[in-house]
């Protein structure tokens, strides 16, 4: 009998005893290839000596100080690294302990920005259906899953939803990528006008959709059109790169590939690669200056923000990625993975789509390839696939499920950046 309140109390879990490189070993010494980095987290695999060393070194110096008393050198150095690599004027790094915290901070910062700049009526957030931004109340409110939101509705901030950018399912046969992008941008603009421009604070989107749709990248020009709509109406653009950022797509910031700079970006998972819990929100000069030039204080904060040991781990992770030129490997191995998946699976009657960017790949399963009809949700294809894969010693992350009455079965493959051509 366990006394841990596990996320799924009815499910049996084996005990992970150790990890080495791309493998995890359980209590019976059975090995599992970690092909999803857990949930796209462990981007350097397990047991990396340089990260362990950096954590030990920091622990020998000081593990933690509260951010209202001190900063630490590693916290400053990690912020410098992120500022140097972040696009545009995203120069102000606010550290947190994970993805949901980063999103909460982003929502509150957006709201405070408008209060500070005399636009207090801007209170609505617009996000997309089939999106995931975390499980805390703010993140849940904007997340695109009505079923998950339902029990908590009275507790949630006002949020509205538009269509996702999901070419495999929603791009029309006669539409080019650009036309599809424009149609979606028009939908966002209509939503802003319907709510009243003066009431809308921000549009929030994952740069590449992860947990709900299985590594779905935006079509060409989508994010640029969205940026233009936001700018036209003074609405902030928040890009959630909690899953897709920090090199997962082959670029440290996924939106670099789309040549779009948001006003706020959120990162987490790959930042600390699972060696320590850490996330961050990075804000533009414009937003930061509005706060510092206004009340001077962001009304937010958490006990563990800027945690020295977490920052030491994350800094070491980022240094390894740079020193070993791992982003090049991410691009090459990602291409290789999708090419091999295509040649192995394209003829399979149940494979609907194979997509992704860098080492962020999704495979969508359908009952009928021609109509793209999904499987009966009762079959629980996703959990069956996960169980079977674990039985065979492979970890892959099931995404999708039934969201707002629409069913989809996908798996996410997010192998560590250290994987080789032979893996
Ligand atoms: N945003 C995105 C895009 C995510 O994929 C996740 C987690 O999967 C989150 C936010 C929430 O992050 P966390 O689970 O660290 O709170």
From TrEMBL:
Question: Could you tell me the superkingdom of the organism this chain comes from?
Answer: Bacteria
Q: Which cofactor does it need?
A: pyridoxal 5'-phosphate
Q: Which InterPro entries match?
A: Aminotrans_3 (IPR005814), Aminotrans_3_PPA_site (IPR049704), PyrdxlP-dep_Trfase (IPR015424), PyrdxlP-dep_Trfase_major (IPR015421), PyrdxlP-dep_Trfase_small (IPR015422)
GO CC annotations, alphabetized: cytosol
Q: Which CDD domains match?
A: OAT_like
Q: Which UniProt keywords apply?
A: Aminotransferase, Pyridoxal phosphate, Transferase
Give the Gene Ontology MF terms in alphabetical order.
pyridoxal phosphate binding; transaminase activity
Keyword Transferase carried by entry: yes
Kindly name one Pfam family recorded for this protein: Aminotran_3
Record family assignment: Belongs to the class-III pyridoxal-phosphate-dependent aminotransferase family.
Designated name of the protein: Adenosylmethionine-8-amino-7-oxononanoate aminotransferase
């Amino acid at each position: 009998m366990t006394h841990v309140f596990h996320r799924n109390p009815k499910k049996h879990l084996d005990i992970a005893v150790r990890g080495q490189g791309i493998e995890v070993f359980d209590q019976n010494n059975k090995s599992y290839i970690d092909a999803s980095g857990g949930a796209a987290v462990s981007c350097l695999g397990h047991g990396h000596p340089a990260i362990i060393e950096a954590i030990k070194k920091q622990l020998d110096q000081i593990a933690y100080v509260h951010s209202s008393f001190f900063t630490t050198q590693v916290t400053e150095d990690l912020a410098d690294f992120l500022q140097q690599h972040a696009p545009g004027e995203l120069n102000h790094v606010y550290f947190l302990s994970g993805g949901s915290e980063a999103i909460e901070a982003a929502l509150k910062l957006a709201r405070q920005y408008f209060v500070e700049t005399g636009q207090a009526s801007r209170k609505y957030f617009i996000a997309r259906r089939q999106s995931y931004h975390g499980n805390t109340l703010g993140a849940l409110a904007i997340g695109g899953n009505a079923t998950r939101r339902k029990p908590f509705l009275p507790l949630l901030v006002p949020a509205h939803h538009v269509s996702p950018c999901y070419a495999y399912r929603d791009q029309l046969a006669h539409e080019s990528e650009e036309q599809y992008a424009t149609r979606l941008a028009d939908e966002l603009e209509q939503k802003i006008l319907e709510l009243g421009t003066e009431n809308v604070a921000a549009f929030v989107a994952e740069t590449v959709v992860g947990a709900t749709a299985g590594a779905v990248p935006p079509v060409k020009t989508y994010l640029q059109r969205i940026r233009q709509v936001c700018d036209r109406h003074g609405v902030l653009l928040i890009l959630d790169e909690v899953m897709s950022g920090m090199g997962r797509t082959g670029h440290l910031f996924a939106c670099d590939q789309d040549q779009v700079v948001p006003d706020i970006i959120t990162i987490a998972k790959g930042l600390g690669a699972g060696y320590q819990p850490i996330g961050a929100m990075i804000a533009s000069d414009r937003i930061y200056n509005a706060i510092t030039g206004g009340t001077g204080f962001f009304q937010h904060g958490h006990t563990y923000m800027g945690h020295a040991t977490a920052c030491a781990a994350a800094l070491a992770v980022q240094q390894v990625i740079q020193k070993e030129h791992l982003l090049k490997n991410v691009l090459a191995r990602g291409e290789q993975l999708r090419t091999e998946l295509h040649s192995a699976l394209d003829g399979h009657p149940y494979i609907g789509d194979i997509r992704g960017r860098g080492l962020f790949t999704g495979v969508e399963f359908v009952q009928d390839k021609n109509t793209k009809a999904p499987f009966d949700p009762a079959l629980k294809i996703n959990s069956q696939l996960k169980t079977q894969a674990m039985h065979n010693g492979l970890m892959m992350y099931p995404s999708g499920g039934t969201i707002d009455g629409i069913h989809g079965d996908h798996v996410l493959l997010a192998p560590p950046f250290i994987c080789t051509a032979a893996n």
